[in-house]
UniProtKB/TrEMBL annotation:
The keyword Mitochondrion applies. Belongs to the PPR family. P subfamily. It comes from the Eukaryota. It comes from Eucalyptus globulus. PROSITE patterns: PPR. The keyword Nucleus does not apply. Keywords: Mitochondrion, Repeat, Transit peptide. Pfam families: PPR, PPR_2. GO terms for cellular component: mitochondrion. GO terms for molecular function: mRNA binding. PPR repeats lie at residues 138-172, 173-207. This is Pentatricopeptide repeat-containing protein.
Length: 474
């Protein structure tokens, strides 16, 4: 599955009832006070480390004599959820409940239940639900628990829980049916999704944009372009539906996969016509789709439109356009975008220059990759071991062993930021073998000093023996 399909799948299956308050569109900014006075939000928002508790900041705010408004706590929880800071959102929710700031209604219980499921898992969510008072076990809390089951792909529990909701006499809404369509999408049973939509209509529940979009996705995943088109035409005739850019983008994606470039371009045109305001997410997805079609001109045109519309592009926008340009082999254009990012004032993210560095390495431009890494290092910016290791491998394959050794030393001297990253044992062994044949004992020892994360004791021993033997003969 390509990157775009994964993104569609992630969008479709992440918008569950527990997260419904965040809406479909992603926010590009966060709540800020209009005054210079510190706010509770300004105290807790910078605490981005998931392992760092926000409770001390909340307690400190009260000790300083400040008041706490429930509406502000709700806004903080909503913002944290949108930013996927679920542990912090749960902590604020639990702090609110513990300190008696507000008596929880079923709505607040539903939010907390959803967060418990995300942070602590199903067992904890089920326990929380069971401990609720009967008057709090409403459609909202039942729906939140269903969301937890769907998110964990629990088919039997989801179906059983849905039956309980029916037996309770709850009026099922589009949200509930969407949840079940998400479940079948997650487990790959795309043929069952249209049946849920049919049941929805039979029960006089109006499908919303998301209902149609996920059903369109089910047809597309089964390569049923005709079924997808029929559903799109039906959607366009519904008076309560305003077909948005995302719907046509979904259609364009499957047209591209089916090799129907002309229909894809038409869908992309319709999608672009429906972009409004500072919708960087929409521009990014259209750029990605045009990349799949190889449309460099359209990519650059949309990038200019995005910059004008959003005024200030964020880092993920730069990563998206750089990946598109690199994919098409447009390295000169990528270099221009990288220069724009450097002067943008955005916070440093190595993933942005590394997109270009990786492209240089793939094209055999190891000197350019090294130069970019050196420039970052000189500016005190973070680089990563794997980026230097790519350069080392490139130099080695080109026969420039000295530069390969230098780059690998730098790679091994840096802290490992990717948990699973380890240097290629074959490359390390090859370098050790070369040092044994051509270097001194001191050279071998210096390189071996960097090898704590690589099990090459035998290779080090052999290299030291060869280097020592050669030195003794000399």
């Amino acid at each position: 599955m390509n990157g775009w399909s994964s993104l569609i799948r992630a969008q479709i299956c992440s918008r569950l009832p527990g997260a419904a308050a965040t809406g479909w569109r992603c926010s590009r900014g966060y709540y800020k006070s209009r005054t210079r006075k510190p706010t509770l939000y300004s105290e807790v928002s910078p605490l981005g480390d998931p392992g760092r508790s926000v409770a001390p900041a909340l307690d400190g705010w009260l000790r300083s004599g400040n008041t706490v408004r429930f509406a502000e706590l709700q806004r903080i929880i909503r913002d944290f959820r949108r930013r996927k800071r679920f542990s912090h959102a749960l902590e604020v929710s639990e702090w609110t409940q513990k300190n008696g700031v507000f008596v929880f209604s079923p709505v607040e219980h539903a939010v907390q239940l959803d967060l418990i499921g995300r942070v602590h898992g199903l067992v904890s969510a089920e326990k929380y639900f069971e401990n609720l008072m009967d008057h709090d076990k409403t459609y909202k809390t039942y729906g939140a628990l269903l969301s937890c089951y769907v998110r964990r792909h629990q088919v039997e529990k989801s179906l059983s829980h849905l039956q309980k909701m029916r037996e309770k006499g709850f009026d099922l809404t589009a949200l509930t049916y969407n949840n079940m369509m998400c479940l079948f999408t997650k487990i790959g049973q795309h043929d069952k999704v249209p049946d849920v939509l049919t049941e929805m209509k039979e029960n006089k529940v109006l499908p919303d944009n998301f209902s149609y979009r996920i059903c369109m996705n089910s047809y597309g995943e089964r390569s049923d372009i005709k079924g997808m088109e029929e559903l799109l035409r039906e959607m366009e005739t519904q008076p309560h539906i305003a077909v948005d850019w995302n719907t046509y983008a979904v259609a364009a994606n499957f047209y591209i996969k089916a090799g129907l470039a002309k229909k894809a371009l038409d869908a992309l045109k319709r999608s672009e016509e429906r972009l409004t305001g500072k919708d960087g997410t929409g521009f990014n997805q259209l750029i990605s789709l045009h990349t799949s079609l190889g449309n460099k001109t359209e990519i650059l045109r949309l990038w200019d439109l995005e910059k004008n519309a959003c005024k200030r592009c964020i880092n993920k926008d730069y990563i998206n356009i750089l990946k598109s340009l690199v994919k098409l082999g447009e390295l000169e254009e990528a270099e221009k975008v990288l220069t724009e990012w450097e002067s943008s004032g955005n916070c440093y993210d190595f993933g942005i220059p590394d997109t270009v560095i990786a492209a240089y390495s793939e094209k055999g431009l190891h000197e350019k990759a090294e130069t970019l890494l050196e420039n970052l290092k000189e500016k005190g910016k973070e680089t990563t071991p794997d980026s230097w290791a790519r350069v080392a491998a490139g130099y080695w394959h080109n026969g420039d062993v000295e530069k390969a050794v230098k780059s690998m030393k730098l790679a091994l001297s840096l802290p490992v930021t990717k948990k699973r990253w380890k240097p290629d044992p074959k490359l390390v062994a090859t370098i050790l073998n070369w040092l044994g044949d051509n270097g001194s004992v001191a050279d071998v020892e210096a390189f071996a000093g960097f090898l704590s994360i690589v099990p090459v004791n035998r290779e080090i021993h052999d290299a030291l023996l060869k280097a020592g033997s050669r030195e003794s003969k000399m």
